[in-house]
Design a protein that fits this description.
Layout (H helix, E strand, L loop, with lengths): L6 E3 L5 E3 L4 E2 L17 E10 L2 E9 L5 E8 L7 E2 L19 E9 L4 E10 L2 E9 L5 E6 L5 E6 L8 E7 L11 E6 L6 E7 L12 E3 L4 E3 L2 E12 L2 E11 L7 E4 L10 H4 L7 E9 L4 E8 L3 E8 H9 L7
Antiparallel strand pairs: 1-2, 3-23, 4-5, 5-6, 6-7, 8-9, 9-10, 10-11, 12-13, 13-14, 14-15, 16-18, 17-18, 18-19, 19-20, 21-22, 22-23
């Protein structure tokens, strides 16, 4: 049993587990009440550092039930968010018919080679969800490259640099895979960001009673560390009362990310607070982004709570890597 299962007695006499992520005391940090125009909910934000500030690109669901993306910026990543007065990136079904029912769940990766930010997001087409890609320098003007997968596919992000001369895309096709069951995390590669091929399974959903059995997907984009690529992913457990979305970790080899060095057996973050357990979709914590502060080693993880609001949890990169060292080496 890992170190995470050391327990302590809370002030109310209830026994609690130590957690790798500490929830921000003023959660949720953003909700529909903060928005400058009428919306139903805001959740599942991408996150990056831009111009010395934290920038979120939030999924915003309007009152029709369709989503678009809106930018929110904060100097400290916690308070005083400046939110665009109108949608930052909207569905454009006239030019991109795959946007028929909106766009959602973005991830942001900065690409030093291009000096641009890659925004991957889900376009909800008439044939099902698929992954779309856009590039931007300023989060005001976007160059859309169109769809990069076919339906059903989502939960996608780019690695921040080429590996073996190609761009790598993590994504999650929703179809039977290698063993005939489950939805797994895959990687595809491209020489130019237009043609994507060479699909390979990266991380398989487990079977049986595991917290991440049958369906998993990428959460935040991979974070490069001296010890390998840090991967945050979500697992979905289906119960008689509905699905529960929780988070786990994996560490990928630095030179060959297809090699999984470590993977958490336990979930490391799950719905606990009321804003995570009650909302449009109950029992969901769903991050699409995190930001790393090299000076302090701090990681801020931004996540959707119950498909209704945006919350923040904080840890350090060292804590995550130390925890992963206690996790088993996956079987080949």
């Amino acid at each position: 049993m890992s170190k995470r299962f050391q327990t302590k007695l809370a002030g109310d006499g209830q026994r609690q587990y130590d957690e790798l992520f500490r929830r921000y005391e003023d959660n949720p940090i953003l909700s529909s009440h903060d928005w400058p125009y009428p919306v139903n909910t805001v959740f599942n934000p991408a996150a990056t550092l831009y111009d010395g500030k934290v920038l979120l690109l939030a999924r915003v669901e309007d009152r029709r039930g369709m989503s678009h993306l809106t930018k929110a910026v904060s100097a400290d990543g916690c308070r005083n968010w400046k939110i665009d007065e109108e949608p930052t990136l909207e569905a454009d079904p006239e030019h991109f018919p795959e946007d028929k029912w909106g766009i959602e769940d973005p991830r942001i990766t900065y690409l030093p080679e291009l000096a641009e930010y890659a925004v991957t997001f889900t376009s909800y087409s008439g044939g099902g969800p698929l992954v779309s890609l856009a590039l931007t320098k300023d989060f005001r003007h976007f160059k859309r490259l169109g769809p990069v997968t076919t339906p059903d596919d989502k939960d996608a992000a780019l690695f921040p640099r080429r590996i073996d001369g190609k761009w790598w895309l993590i994504h999650r096709p929703v179809s039977p895979m290698t063993d005939g069951t489950g939805c797994h995390i895959w990687v595809s590669k491209s020489p130019d960001m237009h043609y994507w091929g060479e699909p390979e399974p990266l991380l398989l959903a487990r079977k049986g009673g595991w917290w991440d059995a049958n369906k998993i997907g990428l959460s935040a984009p991979p974070l490069e560390t001296p010890e390998g690529w840090l991967l945050l992913y979500h697992g979905v457990r289906t119960t008689c009362a509905g699905a529960i979305y929780r988070l786990g970790l994996a560490l990928l080899d630095h030179a060959d990310p297809m090699k999984v060095l470590r993977r958490s057996d336990e979930w490391i973050f799950g719905p606990r607070e009321e804003y995570e357990r009650k909302g449009d979709v109950a029992d969901v914590v769903f991050p699409c982004g995190w930001v790393y502060d090299k000076a302090t080693d701090e990681i801020k993880m931004y996540y959707g709570g119950a498909d209704t609001c945006i919350a923040l949890a904080v840890t350090t990169r060292r804590a995550l890597l130390d925890y992963l060292k206690t996790c088993p080496v996956p079987e080949a």
